[in-house]
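User: Hi! I'm working on a homework problem where we have to compare a predicted structure to a textbook description. Could you give me the structure for the chain below?
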Amino acid sequence: MRRLLLVVSVLGVLMPVVGQAQTPVVNPLTVTFTASADHAATLPDGTAMVTRYEIRHFLTGATSPVQVGNLAKPAPVSGVITASITGSLASLPFSPTQVYTAKIAAIGPTGEGVSAASNPFIIVSSPAAPGTPTVSR
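Assistant: Happy to help. Predicted structure tokens:
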């Protein structure tokens, strides 16, 4: 299977800038990637070559994912797949100092093809609530 292009985005595709440090995307909502070249291919017995995609979340520089999410097999539009990743991010710790990347795996009965790492992203929670207000006259 061929490599997949992966970028994590909040409002669309954020293209990486070669040679420059990238500012992490905060609380990404979707992942956008080029479908596997084998997305619609079948084996001689009619079995699909790609049965599903996975998103694998990594701490920057790590070789093992800290979280894996099933993306199923969304239909590409003009060769590009966009999928929600809010569910797969739900169990990652909230920390503005914890920087993640993601990889997409195209998985089928003959193995898997894995993309290069995405642009960086972080998961942060909402600000802490202020103190209880006192209303006075």
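For your comparison, note the following. The two ends are 71 Å apart (CA to CA). The beta strands are 6-9, 25-26, 30-34, 52-59, 67-72, 80-84, 95-108, 111-114, 121-123. Good luck with the assignment!
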